[in-house]
Amino acid sequence: MHDGAHTPDNALPVSRRAFLKVVTLAAGGFAVGWRLPAGVLADGDDGADLNPFVRIQPDNTVTVVIKHLDKGQGITTGLTTIVAEELDADWSQMQFEFAPANDELYKNLFFGIQVTGGSTAIANSWMQMRQAGAAARAMLVAAAAERFGVPVGGLRVEKGRVTDPESGRSASFGDLATLAADQVPPAEPVLKDPKDFTLIGATLPRLDSPSKTDGTATYTLDVTRPGMLVALVAHPPRFGAVLAAFNADKAKKISGVRHVVAIPRGVAVVADGFWAATRGREALEVQWDFTNAEMRGSAEMLSDYKETAKTKGASARLTGDAEAALADAEDVIEAEFDFPFLAHATMEPMDCVVDLKTDRCDVFSGAQMPTVDRQIVAGIVGLPLDKVYVHTHFAGGSFGRRAVPDSDYAAEAAMVAKAIGGKAPVKLIWTREDDMHGGRYRPMSFHRLRGGLDVDGRLVAWDHRIVMQTFLKDTPFEILIEGGVDGTSVEGARGLPYDIPNVSVDLHLVDNGVTTLWWRSVGHTHNGYVTEVFFDMLAKKAGQDPGDLRRSLLRNHPRHLQVLETVLDKSGWGTPLVARAGARRGRGVAVHESFNSFVAQVAEVTVDDNGLKVDRIICAVDCGIAINPDIIVAQMEGGIGYGLSAALREAITLTDGIVDQDNFDTYEPLRINDMPDIEVHVVASGEAPTGVGEPGVPPVAPAVANAIADATGQRFYRLPFGDEIGTA
Amino acid sequence: MTKVTLNGRSVELDGDGDMPVLWYLRDIAGLTGTKFGCGAGLCGACTIHVDGEALRSCQTRLDDIQDGSSITTIEGLADGETLHALQQAWAEHNVPQCGYCQAGQIMQAAVLLTENPNPSDADIDEAMWGNICRCGTYQRIKAAIRSVAGTGSASTADAARA
């Protein structure tokens, strides 16, 4: 059995495919013969387009057109590497640019629209980029054959040059580019044997490092247009509230304020710069209508969720008969877990530039779904789709926040541009407080677990109930909710890999006025914690080593098992940890599959009077063929930092419907002194590559929690637990 | 009108005296390498050098700048064509992910190494504590700083000017 196909979780992409009418990714399914429609790429470019992904300039640079957003995960380097490999280019001649918004040419092959998400950027592009590179290579060879007057068969390609060994003649890609563009693309380009890869698997430097260290990288916040104004918007303080009335008299008196306009999402103050807009917004007087607003606090919401959890929800998985097995079990343990709303808290707050003219609209954004944003902006400004141009820039983090079904902030920028009649280009900026209050959080959730052991201490029953809201409701993605089950709520729970004869997972989807969204690793954030901590509790109850019990119950899951064995081995699992006087130390392990990648982590912690110190995380990842091992390592490091931050201290709470947190003082991400030493092992694999942006996140919180339990016996049933250590 | 040196050039700070230097740099001087992260001095993304000291430009008003001061932003950290040793180390260690905080990180680290050319790990933690990286690049930031520490190559263009 292919071990990527054993869990119900893996049904999810199939469901998405069905919905989004995905083009089959088969050999030859990629139309390498596509010619680029006029106007798709930048005017005035003298490069030759060999296909929609490869352009070669006369100066011998090769530009790879990147259909995905780079929000830090390194996809610009990754996709460029794959093309360069098949092209036999020299790495020093490679560069990249972001693709325009165009579903036909640049769709994510797993989703059918142009979207960066679900850790799919490498996975969906793998064969497509290889074919794009190989097709371009064949065209360059054909061009050289024509120029040299020799058959293609004898020509060699190496480091960006095509050489005829017979005559010794050679030409660079740049010399051949124009002629190559006129060649007929091969119907089925010949791909390399992976054993001949020289760039894939090498640790190449990230292409974006130089511009991100000298201040020249351009983010949306850095975009300027002639005559551009800056807009800040006063938003309602509660979710679901709307504008009742406003008085702009004082705001308009602020020097530099040009327009104060009502838009469907609030009141916009449009000024010469950020500072004038800030002062103008401070002077604005606004009344809100709370008739349809969410007025509950998060504590009330949690009480409601707990009440809901008393009955069974929609079944997401049923293996055997968990109820009967629990009734027959020798020992039953129960636990309840709850998780807060979480903000993505990207370093670059939400922002978007819209330049609206009578006959065209240019949108500048670091967006995960550029064609969705384009469609929504086009509707707001009243222009046809082909008159709206989306220009993608680096995003200063996203973690899911910039893939919004209703394009909230991009829509808002378009509303402002429309409201001022296109008199000036508009840069919409959300302040940190706007961003923190702006919703689209990871949903809060409540979990009830029961597990049963038989007389011999064998794990025979597992029952997991989840209560949460779905962010797919009232969006085009709602069709993904099947039989009352939203896959993004139960992923990582219904796919429980352990060999347990009776498993039940059920879900209640509840209403909540707070807006929510996918947050780095999505359902796996909470389900990974619940499953791996509860498993540890059962192992302890059974008197078994949690590493050994995982080994035993994952024996039919070789990819889980390999990463698990790697971290147990590398961490010295089972050997004693040395603790200072007055300190207690512990180890914990967690293993979790998400987005078809497999990650295990061992945490080593010290608990003393000063609280918790996470000393070290040993991580192993199997993501198939490693395109760029150092970027994989970096994504594991970053995922661990992100997951640890949430585990220790992140929470969005509400009082009477108003968010309690404002800025990084009350929602404080992990800082440098909290960062553990991290050691990452990338497991060798010949499987097709899968994602690494998200899979590093889920295991860290349970690994650390299990390590604390190992050190002190304290268990945490509510996240974040940073302030609870040593209190029990 | 306050006359200052900005990245080696003489300029007059022209604008609302209450305006944070961050927005002067970004909206008026067109220097967008210095980033807006929190507007409250909590994240360090806007860190610049004023007379060799690392300051949060979102919390420094134009009126706070003394006549004759020397201001350096990330755009002015290199010595001509030669990148600052930390900028080179950042690229060699593949530190940036999204990269948005990194200008602030580098500016903070540059002052650390000017004041303490051979910092301990605890010194690095203390100096860099105020700079948030949401991508979690901290381990590489430390490695990059360590690789430059003690080499004597951390002298900065603005330190020379200051």
Automatic annotation (TrEMBL), chain A:
Ranges of residues in domain Aldehyde oxidase/xanthine dehydrogenase a/b hammerhead: 214-292
Pfam assignment, any one: MoCoBD_2
Domain of life: Bacteria
GO MF assignments: oxidoreductase activity
Protein name: Isoquinoline 1-oxidoreductase beta subunit
Source organism (scientific name): Eilatimonas milleporae
From TrEMBL, chain B:
Highest taxon listed in the record's lineage: Bacteria
InterPro entries associated with the record: 2Fe-2S-bd, 2Fe-2S-bd_dom_sf, 2Fe-2S_ferredoxin-like_sf, 2Fe-2S_ferredoxin-type, 2Fe2S_fd_BS, Beta-grasp_dom_sf, Diverse_Oxidoreductases
Residue intervals of the 2Fe-2S ferredoxin-type domain: 2-77
GO molecular function: 2 iron, 2 sulfur cluster binding; metal ion binding; oxidoreductase activity
Pfam families in alphabetical order: Fer2, Fer2_2
Record's keyword annotation contains Methyltransferase: no
UniProt keyword list: 2Fe-2S, Iron, Iron-sulfur, Metal-binding, Oxidoreductase
PANTHER family registered for this protein in UniProt: BLR6218 PROTEIN (PTHR44379:SF2), OXIDOREDUCTASE WITH IRON-SULFUR SUBUNIT (PTHR44379)
Stated name of the protein: Isoquinoline 1-oxidoreductase alpha subunit
Protein source organism: Eilatimonas milleporae
